[in-house]
Write a structure and sequence with these properties.
- With 250 residues, the chain is α+β, with helices and mostly antiparallel strands.
- Helix content is 58%, strand content 18%.
- It contains 7 helices and 6 strands, in the order H-H-H-E-H-H-E-E-H-E-E-H-E.
- The chain has helices at 2-36, 42-74, 86-107, 126-129, 133-149, 173-189, 218-234; strands at residues 112-123, 155-160, 163-169, 192-194, 197-210, 240-242.
- Strands 1, 2, 3, 4, 5 and 6 form a 6-stranded mixed beta sheet that branches.
- Helix 1 runs antiparallel to helix 2 and helix 1 (2-36) packs across helix 3 (86-107).
- It is elongated and about 90 Å long.
């Protein structure tokens, strides 16, 4: 059923179910009247059309909403905090899940924000540099920080050692920038120690948003976020950059 909803969109699916309900109710009414030998009356036919036309959209809209909410929750990513070969799989899985959400968002004329985040180590004492565990400590700390900022419907993936990507359904540019600033602020305020040494780090964040003002393809949306991250790095440490519109990929 989710595949049909993703293909038709919430409104299209509700209309389809309503038409089916009205058709079935009318057919059943006609069949029953025929079996009873009664004539087909206008009030009966009118009732068989009006009731399904009113009740079905309300119930279907509510049920589809629950299915969508459940689907998005199930798509939430668990961060891979291990330094192994799973980072590539994580990227492929994230993009696949995020594209499914994108299709749903596009059908419902909503918005989807993409945040690309790179971690930059600022102050790392020489003794800490020799300790391989410091990088893992920072990544774990940052992952936990992200969990505090994200909703259950949000998607998150770790692509490379220090590279994270977020998918935020129903989030416009203002909301995406607000979250990016919140993440940056929490990172700046965090204090980590490793082997008794204080470790400080910052993040670059690139932001792109699919909405009615930027109705690009999913591939273009991802490219926009990547370009925005590059611009953030060129702007200096701890910078946030929102994407400019790019042409859709054909």
């Amino acid at each position: 059923m989710l595949k049909i909803i993703l293909k038709l969109g919430r409104t299209g699916f509700v209309v389809l179910i309503t038409l089916i309900s009205v058709t079935v109710a009318t057919s059943i009414s006609i069949a029953i009247l025929s079996l009873l030998g009664s004539g087909i009356s206008a009030p009966v036919l009118l009732t068989s059309v009006i009731l399904p036309a009113i009740m079905t959209p309300l119930l279907t809209w509510y049920i589809v909403g629950l299915l969508i909410k459940t689907y998005r929750s199930e798509q939430q990513f668990l961060f891979d905090l291990k330094q192994d070969n799973s980072t590539t799989t994580n990227e492929v899985a994230f993009l696949k899940s995020c594209e499914s959400v994108y299709q749903l968002i596009r059908r419902n004329n909503s918005s989807l924000a993409i945040l690309r985040i790179d971690i930059d180590y600022l102050e790392i004492p020489d003794e800490t540099q020799k300790d391989n565990s410091f990088s893992e400590s920072i990544l774990k700390s940052f992952s936990l920080l992200l969990r505090q900022c994200l909703r259950k419907s949000d998607l998150a993936g770790r692509l490379l050692n220090q590279h994270f990507i977020l998918g935020l359904p129903d989030t416009n540019m203002a909301g995406a920038i607000h979250l990016a600033e919140k993440i940056r602020s929490m990172v700046n305020q965090s204090q980590l120690t490793n082997s008794g040494n204080l470790v400080k780090y910052s993040v670059w964040i690139g932001v792109s948003v699919f909405d009615k003002y930027n109705p690009v393809s999913f591939e273009s949306l991802i490219r926009q976020s990547d370009s925005a991250l590059t611009e953030a790095k060129l702007s200096g440490r701890g910078s946030i950059h929102a994407s400019k519109l790019l042409p859709q990929s054909k």
